[in-house]
Amino acid sequence: MNPDPPSATAASPAIELRAWRQFVAVAEELHFGRAAQRLHMTQPPVTQAIAQMERSLGVRLFDRTRRRVALTPAGEALLPEVRELLAHAQALPARARAAAAGEVGRVRLAFVSTVGFERLPTWVREFHAQQPGVALELVEATGDVQMEAFARGEIDAGLMLHSPGQAPASLASLAVGVEPLVLAVPTQHPLARAHAPELAQLLEQPVVMFPRRILPSLHDAVFALYQRHGRVPQVAQEAIQMQTIVNLVWGGLGIAWVPESVTSFRRAGVVYRPVADFAAGTAGAGRRRVSAGARFPACETSLVWPAGDVAPGLARFVEFVRGRRR
């Protein structure tokens, strides 16, 4: 026979996992005695636990008669969710150990557009294959935006562009590659006819350039190159994204200095040219190397993250990148 309908109190206590296990046992056995045997208990504590649960919830979970026990609609609706709850609870210790070992988690990674042409897609694929439990959450952002995001705690790491050795001093960093600057030139421009134009040929040309705020060290290095030759760049237009800079070159606004990795971005009407004065070097790796004595602007890409202790997932990503840097 059913007891009176239960009523919830304003401050119902939380229901422990043990009580939910008892609910599942009774729901699956539909017999309090067999459920108690399955749980290695006597029947009265199980009966009392279910009654207490019903009072706490304010709903009846079982219809009881002298001959049968059956789930109410509320009990039927609750059963699959309780099973899922218990499965999650059972998995928590293993998940905690995996998180402590860096095998699960997430890394919020910001990146500049230059690594998105070739390097980053490969890294994302390979890292996911090695660490399927660690999610990389990607956001494209220039260096200045990344610094603001670090200050707000919105990202865990960033791939940032700067002059060699000029990674932000406030962050831990790992250099992952150095590349020269090359010229982006409209195909109809006279400079496009030369395989490697002379520096003197381009110092008077209007330039499409990135603002200083997003790449201060590289911006200053380009200006210093011109100043060493008694010139100041004629900046015709500023743009933030490298793809936009190349598109503006196509539009005839000027030539542009871009990292060599940008040559992966093919734009009809634009060609890329090295500068003859600084094109010497080795070609075995498919990328030219800038001579240390050339005083020619070069770009370095670094992985950066807050100094100090890092989450295990981030530590695994740092080690992954360390093994793939150029």
What is the strand and helix layout of this fold?
Elements: H1 17-29, H2 32-38, H3 43-57, E1 62-64, E2 69-71, H4 73-100, E3 105-111, H5 113-116, H6 119-130, E4 134-140, H7 143-151, E5 157-162, E6 171-186, H8 199-202, E7 206-209, H9 216-228, E8 234-238, H10 242-250, E9 256-259, E10 270-273, E11 298-306, H11 312-322
Helix pairs in contact: 1-2, 1-4, 2-3
| CATH domain class name of the largest domain | Alpha Beta
Number of helices: 11
Total strands: 11
How confident overall, as mean pLDDT? 87
- Report the radius of gyration as a whole number of Å: 32 Å
Tally of structural domains: 3
CATH superfamily of the largest domain: Periplasmic binding protein-like II
How does the helix and strand content classify structurally? alpha/beta
The CATH topology annotation of the largest domain reads as: D-Maltodextrin-Binding Protein, domain 2
Order of helices and strands: HHHEEHEHHEHEEHEHEHEEEH
Task: List low-confidence stretches.
Answer: 280-294
Per CATH, the architecture of the largest domain is 3-Layer(aba) Sandwich
User: What sort of overall outline do the alpha carbons produce when their principal axes are compared?
Assistant: rod-shaped
- Proportion of residues in extended strands: 15-25%
**Termini, distance in Å?**
77 Å
Q: Residue share in helices?
A: 25-40%
